[in-house]
Specification:
Elements: E1 24-29, E2 47-50, H1 56-59, H2 70-76, E3 80-83, E4 88-92, E5 101-105, H3 109-112, E6 116-117, E7 124-128, E8 131-136, E9 141-145, E10 155-157, E11 160-162, E12 172-177, E13 184-186, E14 191-198, H4 202-207, H5 220-241, H6 253-256
Antiparallel strand pairs: 1-8, 2-3, 3-14, 4-5, 4-13, 6-7, 7-12, 9-11, 9-14, 10-12
Length: 285
C-alpha cells in the first residue's frame, strides 16, 4: 500500500505546444461467434469485460479497510478482464516436458484442449486467446498480466509487455504452477487475465529516462513536505491510540489528491476509472 504523500510540486507537463497522441485500441475477434459464452448454451465460452474495482479479499477486510488504499483500487479497475472459458481442474506432476500437467475439463474436452493445454512444459498451463489487440500511436504497448490483486493458491500468472502497435498475431496467456502435486481449479467465467493498453513505449521510456538517486534532505521542498506528512501521520496514530480518533478513521490526503498542506497537487488525479465506450462494427457475441 502507498502511504507516501504526493509531491508538493505539480508534475511536469508536456513541452509547450506538444500534444499527446490519443491512444487508439482495436480488439479483433479471432474465434468464431460460437466460441463465446453469449452464443453457447452449455455455460462455457470466452467473454471479456472491464475490470471491476472490487475484490473478495478486500470486501472481507476489517471495515473493508483495504479499499482505503487508492493505488490498489485504481490498479484493480485499469483495463479489461478476459474470462476463463471452461471449468477444469489441473495438477502438475513435476515433469518439465509438455504433458506434465494433467487437465480434467468439466465438459467438452475435445473442444477445449485445443485452447487450453501445457504445450510449453515446465508446469505452465497455456490458454490460446481469442483476440488480437492492436494499438496506436506507434510505440504504444499492451501490458498483459493476471487479474490484478486477485490470487490463486498453487499457481502464478505470467506477465508480458507486447508490441501491439505492429504485431498481427494473437498471444497466449500462461500460468505456472508453483509446486508439483498441488491441484488447482479454474472455474468457467472467472477472470483469467487483465489487458492494459499503454499509450507509449514503456521500455523505451525507461531506457531514456533521467534517473537520480538522492538523499531526501538534499531537496528542501520535498523534504519539508515529507516531514510534515510523517509528523501528521505520527500524531494521527498517537491520537487514535489515545482514543481521540475513531478506530476506523483514516487520513484521506492521497484519496483527495492533495498534499499535507491541503494543496491540490495531482494532475489527472482519479479515484475511479470510467471504461471507454467500445464501438462495434457488428453485433458482439
Amino acid at each position: 500500500m502507498n502511504d507516501a504523500p504526493p509531491s508538493a510540486a505539480a508534475p511536469p507537463g508536456p513541452p509547450s505546444g506538444a500534444t499527446a497522441a490519443r491512444l487508439e485500441i482495436d480488439v479483433f475477434q479471432i474465434a468464431g461467434d460460437d466460441m463465446f459464452r453469449s452464443r453457447r448454451s452449455d455455460g462455457t465460452g470466452w467473454d471479456w469485460s472491464w475490470a471491476p474495482w472490487q475484490r473478495d479479499w478486500m470486501d472481507a477486510s476489517h471495515n473493508q479497510f483495504a479499499y482505503r488504499c487508492l493505488p490498489l483500487t485504481i490498479a484493480n479497475q485499469t483495463g479489461w478482464w478476459v474470462s476463463n472459458p471452461v471449468g477444469f481442474a489441473a495438477v502438475w506432476t513435476g515433469r518439465s516436458e509438455p504433458g506434465g500437467v494433467a487437465i480434467a475439463f468439466d465438459r467438452d474436452e475435445d473442444l477445449w484442449r485445443g485452447w487450453i493445454n501445457d504445450q510449453f512444459g515446465m508446469g505452465v498451463v497455456t490458454w490460446n486467446t481469442p483476440f488480437l489487440w492492436r494499438t496506436r500511436p506507434a510505440g504504444s504497448r499492451l501490458f498483459v498480466c493476471g487479474p490484478i490483486n486477485r490470487f490463486k493458491h498453487g499457481i502464478q500468472p505470467l506477465a508480458a509487455i507486447i508490441e501491439s502497435d505492429w504485431m498481427t498475431m494473437s498471444f497466449t496467456m500462461n500460468w505456472r504452477f508453483t509446486a508439483p502435486g498441488v491441484p488447482v481449479r479454474f472455474d468457467a467465467g472467472e477472470p483469467l487475465f487483465q489487458v492494459i493498453p499503454l499509450a507509449t513505449n514503456l521500455c523505451g521510456d525507461l531506457e531514456t529516462a533521467a534517473v537520480r538517486y538522492r538523499r531526501l534532505e538534499d531537496d528542501p521542498e520535498t523534504f519539508a513536505a515529507y516531514t510534515a506528512w510523517h509528523d501528521a501521520r505520527r500524531r494521527f496514530h498517537e491520537r487514535k491510540a489515545a482514543g481521540d480518533v475513531r478506530a476506523d478513521d483514516w487520513q484521506r490526503e492521497y484519496f483527495q489528491g492533495r498534499d499535507v498542506f491541503g494543496r491540490p497537487v495531482a494532475s489527472g488525479h482519479k479515484t475511479k476509472i470510467a471504461p471507454p465506450a467500445v464501438v462495434s462494427d457488428g453485433p458482439r457475441p
